[in-house]
Amino acid sequence: MQFTAQQIASLLNGSIEGNPDIEVSNLAKIEEASLGDLSFLSNPKYEQFLYDTNASIVIVNEDQQLLSTPKSTLTLIRVKNAYTAFSTLLNIYNEVRLDRKGREEPSYVHDTTEIGEDGYIGAFVYIGKACKIGKNVKIYPQVYIGDHVVIGDNSTLFPGVKIYQDCILGSNVTVHSGTVVGSDGFGFAPQEDGTYTKVPQIGNVIIEDDIEIGANTVIDRATMGSTILHKGVKLDNLIQIAHNVELGRNTVIAAQTGVSGSSKIGENVILGGQVGVVGHISVADRSQVQAQSGINRSIVEADKKWAGSPVLGYQSNMRSQVIYAKLPDLEKRVRELERLLKENLKS
After folding, report:
1. Does the N-terminal or the C-terminal CB of the chain have fewer CB atoms within 10 Å?
2. Distance from C-alpha of 52 to C-alpha of 22, rounded to nearest angstrom
């Protein structure tokens, strides 16, 4: 599809410097763009590419100062925030690229299941009994949806997603390939003979609106009640969310993080990659936790940064690392002092 600079500027409420009729049909990075491509500049680090890029249109911030003259073939669109504007275009481009309708065969949908209009069901999809699927829901090939599942409007399940029985997904939810929602929580009761007896997991998972879940992530169903992801949560790939965990609104979690059972993560929390959270604790709102940290106790102060394993305040952890790096020199100094002390005692 082709768009003119004028069409793009109208969509983004931007102003044009150059040819309003120039057309683009592809999105590209500014340093790699060719004629017919649309790009953007928001990071000053890449400003040098603005003056020799082959892109036809570049979106820039409205306060961007030009240090040189761009190529005559380049048209600029000035907007309030170039990064946000380009993200808007990426979303529109992605919607067009992924737009699918109808039902492919073979697929199975139980006759008691309700499916809204304008949706898509790919080949080899299985949808169990008494499910309620909203409008404009896209279910890609090889997705499994168990009995009594609810999925809200405008949600997307990419290939290979598994949604176990009784789970609830809200509207505008995106779940990427290989993710499992509603598998059993890790519940086993130790016995006197050293064996373990499985504790049935009879709860479910509730995923509220406007949530995105990366590939190969697992969200366990509750032992009783619900594992809950509140509105706006964003999960990366390869994350484990255990049974009865609650994630607050707009919390963001990076890859390879694990949150143990019954822990409560507050709103607008940021957990870096490979963070480990023990069970039955809480993390205060707007906490920021550095990658590879271990949270072994509740964090009760909001708006703080944390790092290390076990986790410490961010500045304390940085000071500790500086001291740790000096330990070999400190050891040498201690040994030298001990030697001098012994010599003095002999004399």
Report:
1. C
2. 18
